[in-house]
Design brief:
about 160 residues; alpha/beta; two-stranded antiparallel sheet
Length: about 160
């Protein structure tokens, strides 16, 4: 599903999306807003490139960041939920990983986590958001890893929209 198809589906459903990006540095949000009419469904994006901003802007647990670093599945999940909350969106999409050229915090170049948090679902008297996280290992240089990360995030969002 292309960005244009995602935007069209969100528009049809009356839903919105917000992005939380680290290694992609705004490319994910840019890909979505390249679509004419995206302003009706894209709430915005938070580029939290620095690790401390993941906590300060998106509410990622500081102890988690200290223990595991920014390149982690649970960090990606919390970033997606943070995007939903901070941007007031139905869907949150997040990217975190290592684009290179050097490893980061002991993590290899090309290791990427993408996450999607969907609308809240009933859970007894409360509601919950259960993010879906995928791990990827991309080959290639920095630019290739970043583009592949955007493609993976859009693919995961498309899968969740279809589910």
């Amino acid at each position: 599903m292309t960005a244009a198809e995602i935007v069209a589906l969100l528009l049809e459903r009356g839903e919105s999306v917000g992005c939380a990006e680290s290694l992609t540095g705004g490319l994910l949000t840019a890909r979505l807003v390249d679509v004419p009419g995206a302003s009706a469904v894209v709430r915005g994006g938070v580029v939290s490139y620095a690790t401390d901003l993941k906590h300060e802007l998106l509410g990622v647990d500081a102890e988690l960041l200290a223990a595991r670093g920014a390149v982690d599945a649970e960090v990606a999940a919390q970033m997606a939920v943070g995007a939903q909350r901070v941007l007031g969106a139905d869907w949150g999409v997040a990217t975190t990983g290592v684009a290179g050229p050097d490893p980061q915090d002991g993590m290899p170049v090309g290791l990427v986590y993408v996450a999607v948090a969907g609308p809240e679902v009933p859970a007894g008297p409360a509601v919950r958001v259960v993010p879906v996280v995928h791990q990827h290992r991309f080959d290639g240089g920095r630019a290739m890893v970043r583009v592949a990360s955007v493609d993976a995030a859009l693919g995961l969002l498309a899968d969740q929209l279809r589910a």
